[in-house]
């Protein structure tokens, strides 16, 4: 394998969003000539609105509306000047009101995203460090990444993991002036809280610790003067805290607000804060509406509004508690999340609720892991008890129906979110055809040899003999990364005809295996003292040793869909029982049917390096093969390969000596250490000894004729039972790479050897397609499908790769 392609993230998000759009649950347009907050027009229907972030309903308050209208009449639709020069006449009063709310200096920003971009680079100094909660809002993460350009270290911890946070603080405490922890007050998907009290206790222990809280979802509905969740927990804003609130969402207007008790920092940010200086200011209507809202927040009325919302939230919690719906986090916030697990179950559930007359939000990747898709429900003062009760009844009825429609069950959903079910019975048992028979084994020795070879391994190192070899090589080793669990799955129909077959391994992978080289270089520095830093148990189709089509499926079989469903459920059971953190399905061609299926099952697709193969004609000799190359490639062959061939000693070793085997391992290790584009653990030493003793393995070696005992290159090749020749791994002495064109020479000798053996096919693997194409290889696009327990690793790699 080789370096993964790193435009994958945007491609994946685009695919997931496109899928959700086509299912009619994303990128919708509200309809109607008026809007009251209680209902919303969607697809020619009036639906009760459970998707707003205006929790107090102030966006419909007549005082805010009248203030905005009056401001437009007096001052126009906008005030087109930078605030650095002059603010529109309404700004002063708004700033005074919001300052009175918080009791500390404030800065009004155009919106939260621009505010973070303006504030974070101004507040964080070059001598500081940043630690992000991995679920902190994208806008905070994006602004923090700007500091990479100034060599400010940016790190990340799992969501609300204070032990991990403390370890990171210790790491930076001797080298950094301030350590900034950045988190949300209320997290927008699950509605859970930052542990403010515990965090402040941690800051008493570590004086360098400072906080940057984004509390936009905690605003207005809680706290003195509606100043939000974080301040309600803090009581008083300390100098080591920067607090971000919003004038939109629950506040009912537009804009955002930074609150800062440190006057020196406040003045620095206000004087010149990037977008705070150069961006357009809030429109007069927005400023006036925000001022009217601030008046409400400064009056006793805010507490009446908060109480009205609190009653609705408590009522919804009470009703949910009486059901078996998978509520992900129960608390007092107005944000609720009902898990569905797979995206297609989420699509089905949302559409069912809309048909019943209720609008809710879909929670989907990248806001949540793909397998943690669900329905986000928000409660506002607009919602009345009768429709709150109606929503719960609709969810209780339609949730098992959605599970049934998408061939899943509640147990899988609860397991995906690590929740305990209140009842052990499933809401819905998958309607998998009872005629299907599953054979699941832990050794290839328990699988019929002829059957396996007819189904799988025709073009890879995973025919029956190859897998027996792998089991012997990757069990009983000293290091844990050298020991794999093997599983073999065959699904038969009632006539005992196989529909699907595959093999799987569970082993320790480096989390940065598919990351950019720069990220791996950073992580490998940590691994010098902690060799298992950022590593996880992974369940994979195939293995890290094999490449090719690891999944056999009879596409013409009428029960193909049921077999695929059984495959996914088997994967989940193995993942759970062996405590794996990720499932990887590898080496797929671009097939729309399989893509649609796996994406709906909670997998994200990433493009892998291109695969290269050569098909050989029957009884083809080397001269004929070369004649099939283009004139340009024949010229390349003569100039860079044939010209140096006469300077080299080429040897095919079936039974290398111990000295030769030691050199082979050394050359392979050179290449392995040099390939951070695909960062994996090394292989156990006994593997090479097993290769030397196995009749299907051989080594193509090259040495200079001037020094025939000095091996400078080797190709480790497997002879498949179906006459496929597989150059599985390469080893090189990089000192001679250019002089003898070692890699190109080894490729050519591989082709030459396969022709000499009268083989039909060469599986050249996923590395160096440019070089292989010049020697006649066909290049194929390949994909992997990945499913993770959370997005922590993905987010962390994004931070590290931005450096």
TrEMBL record:
Keyword Transferase part of the UniProt annotation: yes
Named cofactor requirement(s): pyridoxal 5'-phosphate
Gene Ontology terms for molecular function: pyridoxal phosphate binding; transaminase activity
Domain of life: Bacteria
InterPro entries, alphabetized: Acyl_CoA_acyltransferase, Aminotransferase_I/II_large, AON_synthase_class-II, PyrdxlP-dep_Trfase, PyrdxlP-dep_Trfase_major, PyrdxlP-dep_Trfase_small
Alphabetically ordered keywords of this record: Aminotransferase, Transferase
Keyword DNA-binding part of the UniProt annotation: no
Occurrences of domain Aminotransferase class I/classII large (ranges): 50-393
Protein name (record): Aminotransferase class I/II-fold pyridoxal phosphate-dependent enzyme
